[in-house]
Amino acid sequence: MAERVIGLLEAVPWLRRYAGSTFVVKVGGELLDDAKWRDGLARDVAVLHRVGIGVVVVHGGGPQLDRAAAAAGLESERVAGRRITSPELVDLAIAEWSRVSAAFVSALSAQDERAVGLMGFEGGLVAARRRPPVQVTDDDGETRRVDFGRVGDVIGVDPKVLRAVAGTGAIPVITPLCGGEGGEVLNVNADTVAAEVAVALGASKLVVCTRAPGILRDPDDPTSVLPQTDLTELAALEASGALHGGMRPKVAALRRALNGGVPRAHVVDGRQPGALLEEVFTAEGSGTLVQA
Hints:
Elements: H1 2-18, E1 22-27, H2 29-32, H3 35-50, E2 54-59, H4 62-72, E3 78-79, E4 82-83, H5 87-110, E5 115-119, E6 126-130, E7 134-137, E8 143-146, E9 152-157, H6 159-167, E10 171-175, E11 177-179, E12 185-187, H7 190-201, E13 205-210, E14 228-230, H8 231-240, H9 247-259, E15 264-269, H10 275-281, E16 288-291
Parallel strand pairs: 1-2, 1-13, 2-10, 5-10, 13-15, 14-16
Antiparallel strand pairs: 3-4, 6-9, 7-8, 11-12, 15-16
Helix pairs in contact: 4-5, 7-9
């Protein structure tokens, strides 16, 4: 009992600090592939919402799209952690990620929270421009020119849509398929969308929930978690090759959010029950805190 009381008392200053603020929480698709992880994250998001924090969720769906592509006999290639997307893959993503979104909305409903699933291209929420072929250095150090296909770079977020949904007391759940020119639907990395949404809303935090204990100094050592870091150290880790695969777009998103005025960003282990709440409401935290 004493430990529970101490825990509650420790949370009070954080509750006061963040009441009325907005958090953007990005949830990786791999976490939504497991009902236990998905439901645990829905519970943590629901707790944040109930204590007066405005929460916007952005979700991924990589594993789900990979399976659908394999079943359809379509190639699904990634370069430097980012997917090359054909028109056929976009059509699959709309179908698969609609189901992913609905499952998380249902998980929030099971926590007595209202949520609304939104595609990024709906209501002009997230506008994107198709990415031209670019030079990319992949994880093995090879640089080549890559055409990512139906992939977009965000050029604008309309926060009015999200504020309207939040004004009803509901939690927006965003799928990162965004609107391009002429009604074209473009795939945008979910970490990137989360960062742009956080900047547009003037969020207090961007929290990236992933299947890792945090940002690792050594990618082969899961105990090498950085409890705190900054953009300078992350740049050094990136230059040394310590950040690769899916962590590269995550770090790029953290950098964008912090440079765009979001005061704090976090990477937490979405597999661990309560890790999101521990990072927000305790001095020790959980995962990695990143500041500019």
